[in-house]
Design a protein that fits this description.
Blueprint: E1 4-8, H1 10-19, E2 26-31, H2 42-52, E3 60-65, H3 67-75, H4 80-92, H5 106-121, H6 125-128, E4 134-143, H7 154-168, E5 177-183, E6 198-202, H8 208-215, E7 225-226, E8 235-238, E9 259-263, E10 291-296, H9 298-301, H10 313-318, H11 322-335, H12 337-349, E11 355-356
Parallel strand pairs: 1-11, 2-3, 2-9, 3-4, 5-6, 9-10
Antiparallel strand pairs: 1-10, 4-5, 4-8, 7-8
Helix pairs in contact: 2-4, 2-12, 5-8
């Protein structure tokens, strides 16, 4: 039984039939929000950024939201093997002080996570932002109107309004939350972002950590990050709210033959977090015509602990059984090495089998 499935849009499939998957054809790597689900992608990241993509002579743009932003920032640190193994260890062993039987507060989680980002990225910002090959773009969601500042009553009312508005139209969600892209200033993002209300901010040493913290700040689980240096004033939350799986207009990239390589934990590319309930928004569109998605096979997933990918529900399911959760997540991460091994074998043999996206 295979662990890895490969899906491709029609343009990408034709390209793969002609020449296989070549590192020099990849210009963009997106990385989705999704919390602990991203754990199973870390061995793929380790192979792609540590061995495969460095063979390309071209610049590669890394776009991430939430854990995807953390993964893509990690790719820019240098030693991919050590960096992604450390990320896995950090994520698996995350623990927050709390009273027995009670969940930690949003402030406690934000403080602990912010300290972890400082530990991993503090003092390394300049090197990360000058990576010779990679250009990092971090997505966050900036609140508007009721959501422009976090408060006990404004935040739940604002998100209630955002959910109702998004049910009518994804674009209308921009009245409540706008996409903010903290971008490496050396090269422009090679695709347009006209699909949704968007601001661009220069990614720099003084806002790298705040933007990563904001991009991972799930509402009600973590506090919003306010007034990030170099960015418009306001409250910033998880980039996955506006861009859950980054269903962007990749097909509009100007360079002929350029591909988007997307390690993902599922086949569907859902636009925003609030779109999870709207299955008709999960379908592939022409925007993904040049996208190659690498995703775990459902039958392989069924053999993981609990018969599923790690997810945030595990914090409640395991409760105060920290070691039980660590054991389950560690096993899932180790098993996911098969995804990387199968991809490495396929690209070396030139026998990548693809399915329609």
């Amino acid at each position: 039984m295979k662990a890895l499935q490969v899906f491709a849009g029609p343009v990408a499939r034709q390209r793969l039939l002609e020449r296989g998957l070549q590192p020099g054809d990849v210009r963009v790597v997106p990385a989705a929000a999704g919390g602990p689900k991203g754990l199973v992608l870390l061995p793929l990241d380790r192979f792609l950024f540590g061995e495969w993509l460095p063979r390309s002579p071209h610049t590669v743009h890394l776009i991430g939201a939430s854990i995807g932003a953390w993964r893509m920032a990690t790719a820019c640190l240098g030693d991919a093997a050590a960096a992604f193994d450390q990320l896995a260890d950090d994520y698996i062993h995350q623990d927050y002080p709390h009273a027995p039987g009670k969940a930690p507060t949003a402030r406690q989680v934000s403080q602990a996570f912010g300290a972890k980002l400082q530990q991993r990225f503090g003092g390394r910002e300049a090197g990360l932002l000058s990576h010779p090959q990679y250009r990092l773009h971090v997505l966050a969601s900036r609140g508007r109107h009721l959501l422009r500042r976090q408060s006990r009553w404004r935040t739940p009312l604002g998100y209630l309004g955002a959910f109702a508005t998004n049910a009518l139209s994804r674009k209308a969600l921009g009245a409540w939350l706008e996409r903010v892209v903290f971008s490496d200033p050396r090269d422009a993002l090679p695709l347009p972002l006209h699909d949704y209300r968007t601001r661009r901010v220069v990614l720099a040493a003084d806002n790298l950590q705040p933007s990563l913290l904001a991009s991972c700040s799930i509402p009600f689980w973590l506090d919003a990050v306010h007034d990030i240096p170099g960015a418009p004033a306001g409250a910033y939350w998880d980039g996955g709210i506006t861009d859950y799986h980054l269903h962007l207009d990749y097909a509009a990239m100007a360079e002929p033959g350029a591909l988007v390589l997307y390690p993902h934990f599922q086949r569907n590319v859902v636009p925003g977090w609030l779109d999870k309930a709207f299955k008709h928004r999960h379908r592939a569109t022409a925007r993904l015509d040049n996208v190659v998605v690498l995703a775990p096979h459902p039958h392989w997933v069924a053999r993981l602990p609990g018969g599923k990918l790690p997810d945030r529900s595990d914090f409640m399911a395991f409760g105060d059984d920290f070691h039980g959760r660590v054991q389950a997540w560690t096993r899932a991460w180790r098993e996911s090495q098969r995804l990387a091994d199968e991809l490495a074998q396929a690209v070396q043999a030139g026998s990548l089998e693809t399915l329609p996206l």
